[in-house]
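SEQUENCE AND FOLD
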Amino acid sequence: MEIKIRRAELPELSLIMEWRMRVLREVFCLPEDTDMTELYSENEQYYREHLRDGTHTAVFACAGERIIGCGGICYQTEMPSPDNPNGKCGYLMNIYALPEYRRMGVGREIVSFLIKDAQLKNVKKLSLESSEMAEKLYQSTGFLRNEHFYLKYL
């Protein structure tokens, strides 16, 4: 099976949103009857702003004409440091393949495309969160587990 990765562009916002909601429902185990109105609106606003200004790249993975997966990378700048002298960062998210296409290289193709996108933007530091199912994929593409990362929701 040939997998092609293509950018998802702003004119496709409704399709991008359909896939974003699919990913959120699966990742967060949300029942189909969960009210997603506010989350939909906030995500739509995010995409409108960040796809337009280039601080987000969204992609679709395709087998022929069929979309079989998606992914994205959020760009930001942190204070420069010895491990990231220019401060440019990317956060990979939404790396997703339809269940029937998992373990077939879809995630790897998406991640590889996004890494190249980050390199073109001179990004020096990438991060992500991973499910157990995807840990081997990320490790095989050069990501290292960081045991010193903490998270707090406000």
Remarks:
- The radius of gyration is 16 Å.
